[in-house]
Write a structure and sequence with these properties.
- About 5% of the residues are buried.
- The strands form two sheets. This protein has a two-stranded antiparallel sheet with strand order 1-2. It has a two-stranded antiparallel ribbon with strand order 3-4.
- The protein is α+β, with helices and mostly antiparallel strands.
- The radius of gyration is 32 Å and the shape is elongated.
- Strand 1 and strand 2 form a beta hairpin.
- Among the domains are: about 40 residues, no CATH class; about 35 residues.
- About 25% of the residues lie in helices and about 15% in strands.
Amino acid sequence: MATGGNAIRGTRVGAGPMGEQDHGYHAERVAISYWDALGNETIRYFAAGIPEEEIPDTIDSPHSGLPAGRDKENPPALAKTEPYKTHLAYVKERRTEQEAETLLDDALQQLKERRGES
């Protein structure tokens, strides 16, 4: 069985000559380096005309997951995360033991009154 030659197989229509390196227009951009606490450098590219205040001061490093900043000598520290608190923990922060006892007694009294027990 003879194979037919198809010169354009695997190419896009309008792609130009094979191996052409100049496809399209590349906008000007600036490279910004960020460093994490482990010394990993991450480079992010931004449009050349972007205002300085729109470029973030910190990012999350893809290498370590740590925050990364633009100052190599003073990278940002990992923010301390608060442990998960239950509803009861929040209530205990707002109420003293005495207040809790009073509220509980009031709630029990109201329940007894509704049931006709008192």
